[in-house]
């Protein structure tokens, strides 16, 4: 499937690069519907990658790249269930999203996240899957899960540890605060900071530059410098599921869901 337009995302091949565009109101929250379409993309990737040298992930939403997991959906799905069933449902979701993230992480393409605005939680984790992050100057990065009594669950901890120093990992995970694009670049998280609204075009220019080089060499280099932290990814799922059973988490999710703010995930 060379192109696709779904309810939450679309993709096409443009000038030798696959462009995956997130587009679910209000800010690309990742719930079951988005996960299903991401799984469809991951399944199509093996065919798509034979016709492209790069993958660009971006957002059509003005608010930002992605606010992360759909916490309202998570709460409503899990509320009527017993503890065992709640954990089983969360584990299934996490294992499915991890399979998608791992497929993007190890794809034999150079992957580029073109981000702006809110890049939080699971959206931040999706960006971390990519080889390069190009951010417009208004982008902000955050793991707000701490406010709910949780940790990131889409693979963010191992991938952040792989990319930056432990001091920044601890800062983001233990304080819950956000950092702006310039700070993210200074610690090696972001490869380029560009003018507001320019991230996608710069990503396209970068993809075109990458296309000038031998693909086999690029793939070999990527495999060498970007190993998949499988054991840590598995442990992250286990820890998330343990924390999810705590009453404090249920109370925090309930408070989040009942918030009257349009974007309650903002700091």
List keywords for this structure.
2-enoyl-CoA Hydratase, Chain A, domain 1; alpha/beta; 49% helix; seven-stranded mixed beta sheet; 267 residues; 11 helices
Structure description:
The chain has 267 residues and is of the alpha/beta class. 49% of the residues lie in helices and 17% in strands. It is built from 11 helices and 11 strands. It is globular, with a radius of gyration of 18 Å.
Number of strands: 11
Rg, alpha carbons: 18 Å
Which stretches of 5+ consecutive residues score pLDDT under 50?
A: none
Order of strands, main sheet, comes to 1-2-3-4-6-8-11
Percent of residues in helices comes to 40-55%
Quick overview of this protein structure:
The protein contains 11 helices and 11 strands.
List the helices and strands and how they pair.
Blueprint: E1 4-5, E2 9-14, E3 17-22, H1 32-48, E4 54-59, E5 64-66, H2 71-78, H3 83-105, E6 110-115, E7 118-120, H4 121-129, E8 132-136, E9 140-142, H5 156-163, H6 166-175, E10 179-180, H7 181-186, E11 192-194, H8 199-210, H9 215-225, H10 230-244, H11 247-257
Parallel strand pairs: 3-4, 4-6, 5-7, 6-8, 7-9, 8-11
Antiparallel strand pairs: 1-2, 2-3, 9-10
Helix pairs in contact: 1-3, 3-10, 4-5
């Amino acid at each position: 499937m060379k192109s696709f337009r779904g309810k939450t995302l679309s993709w096409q091949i443009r000038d030798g690069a696959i462009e995956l565009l997130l587009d679910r109101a209000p800010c690309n929250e990742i719930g079951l519907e988005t996960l299903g379409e991401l799984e469809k993309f991951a399944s199509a990737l093996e065919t798509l990658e034979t016709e492209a040298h790069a993958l660009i992930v971006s957002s059509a939403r003005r608010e930002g790249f992605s606010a992360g997991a759909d916490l309202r959906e998570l709460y409503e799905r899990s509320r009527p269930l017993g503890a065992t069933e709640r954990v089983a449902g969360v584990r299934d979701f996490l294992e499915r999203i991890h399979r998608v993230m791992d497929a993007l992480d190890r794809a034999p393409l150079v992957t580029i996240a073109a981000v702006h605005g809110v890049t939080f939680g699971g959206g931040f984790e999706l960006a971390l899957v990519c080889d390069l992050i190009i951010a417009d100057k208004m982008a902000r990065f955050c793991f707000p899960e701490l406010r709910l009594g949780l940790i990131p669950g889409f693979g963010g901890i191992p991938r952040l540890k792989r990319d930056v120093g432990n001091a920044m990992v601890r800062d983001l995970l233990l304080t819950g605060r956000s950092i702006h694009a310039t700070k993210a670049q200074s610690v090696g998280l972001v490869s380029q900071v560009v003018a507001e609204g320019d991230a996608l075009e710069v990503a396209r220019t970068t993809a075109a530059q990458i296309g000038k080089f031998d693909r086999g060499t690029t793939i070999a280099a990527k495999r060498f410098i970007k190993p998949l932290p499988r054991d840590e990814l598995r442990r992250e799922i286990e820890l998330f599921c343990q924390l999810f059973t705590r009453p404090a988490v249920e109370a925090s999710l309930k408070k989040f869901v009942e918030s009257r703010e349009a974007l309650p995930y903002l700091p």
